[in-house]
Specification:
This protein folds into 3 domains: about 130 residues; about 45 residues, Seminal Fluid Protein  PDC-109 (Domain B), CATH 2.10.10; about 140 residues. The longest helix has about 35 residues. It is flat and about 80 Å long. The chain has about 350 residues and is mainly alpha-helical. A hairpin with a 2-residue loop joins strand 2 and strand 3. About 65% of the residues lie in helices and about 5% in strands. It has a 3-stranded antiparallel sheet with strand order 2-3-5, with no helix packed on it. Helix 2 packs antiparallel against helix 3, helix 4 packs antiparallel against helix 5 and helix 6 runs antiparallel to helix 9. The relative contact order is 0.11.
């Protein structure tokens, strides 16, 4: 296959779609990690307990006499992480001169399920970086005529690298809630950038008719949804604090007594968003005649998201409800941005 045949609009669009899909897969994997409490399953980064492929048994992290150790390998000794200073052959007893303490944090617990959940999350993140890199390479075809496409593709790749760095800092800070929120926001920004690039290189869909006022409404809805997501992150940080204070067996009283104002606002704001989006969808389908499927999905996702919120509030946080709530919100934002770009392109045409 010639270079010209490889670097085509179609291949770039395919790479963009795959990139968007994998980023959402990363968001889902991150939600599963959070749902299962596996964030510290790998207490170091980029390796996991000093291995590229993590251990499957705790005995693999215990000191073993007459065993060769390589620099950077990790063991758990006296409930603390120890890192091999250099390559050496262990003697019959533990020698502290061969090891140094891990200083990023003091977490030293091995749980095989948490470890492999976090490890799979990292593998999916690496896959995302690879797919975005391929997309970035395909974007080079636009360098002569549409430099913006290539430049923004490179920005997306750099954002993926920044995500990796943030992921390392999250682990080093023992899952700082603020950094977890930043981690999520950057992922959403990457999705938005990729959707923007997709619409810049695909043909205009003439089924979407629009006006400047309707387009501005779509932007307003995105802004309001972002506000709702921001409120949700504040609620989540409150729940993290409650978990630290009371533990998981006390979910039923997390939001029953002394619920913060941000939670009450977040709960009520969801109804307002549903009403506004219902009007938006009705206007788009009945009055303007837009194709139904994406708008139907928008309302369906809103209803399911509200339902997961109800489950968390009234059914004591059933397993998976928090993760589903987060993932659905991120999909809604992506779909809103997709429709907004369609409306923008309709105005241009």
């Amino acid at each position: 296959m010639s270079t010209t045949a490889l670097f085509t609009d179609r291949n770039y669009r395919v790479a963009l779609r795959w990139s968007i899909a994998v980023i959402y897969l990363i968001i889902i994997a991150g939600a599963v990690v959070r749902m299962t409490g596996s964030g510290m399953g790998c207490p170091d980064w980029p390796k996991c307990f000093g291995y590229y492929i993590p251990p499957t048994e705790e005995s693999q992290l215990e000191f073993s006499p007459d065993t060769p150790y390589k620099k950077g390998m990790v063991i758990i000794h006296e409930e603390e992480l120890r890192v091999a200073i250099t390559d050496f052959m262990a003697q019959s007893t533990y020698n502290s001169a061969d090891w140094k303490p891990y200083t990023k944090h003091n977490y030293a617990i091995f749980n095989v399920y948490h470890t492999w959940t976090e490890y799979v999350n990292r593998l999916i993140g690496a896959l995302g970086g690879l797919v975005v890199l391929i997309m970035c390479i395909f974007s080079l075809k636009y360098w002569k005529d549409r430099k913006k496409i290539t430049i923004l593709s490179i920005v997306a790749l750099l954002a993926m690298l920044i995500q990796a760095v943030i992921g390392k800092i999250v682990v080093d800070t023992l899952l700082s809630p603020v950094l977890i929120t930043i981690h999520m926001i950057v992922a959403l920004l990457i999705v938005g950038l990729l959707i923007y690039l997709l619409h810049e290189v695909q043909p205009t869909d003439h089924r979407y008719q629009s006006s400047k006022s309707f387009y501005k409404v779509s932007i307003l809805l995105i802004i309001l949804t972002l506000v709702q997501v921001a409120l949700g992150t504040q609620v989540r940080q409150y729940l993290d604090h409650m978990i630290d204070e009371m533990g998981y067996p006390f979910q039923s009283i997390w939001l029953e007594e002394n619920a913060p104002a941000v939670f009450l606002i977040h709960r009520s704001f969801s109804i307002l968003l549903l009403v506004l989006h219902t009007w938006f969808v009705y206007k788009a389908i009945k009055t303007i005649g837009h194709p139904r499927p994406y708008y139907g999905w928008l309302i369906a996702l809103f209803l399911i998201t509200i339902f997961t919120g109800v489950l968390m509030n009234y059914v004591d946080f059933p397993f998976g409800s928090q993760a589903a709530h987060l993932v659905l919100a991120s999909i809604i934002l992506g779909l809103q941005f997709y429709l907004m770009m369609r409306l923008k392109n309709a105005i241009k045409s």
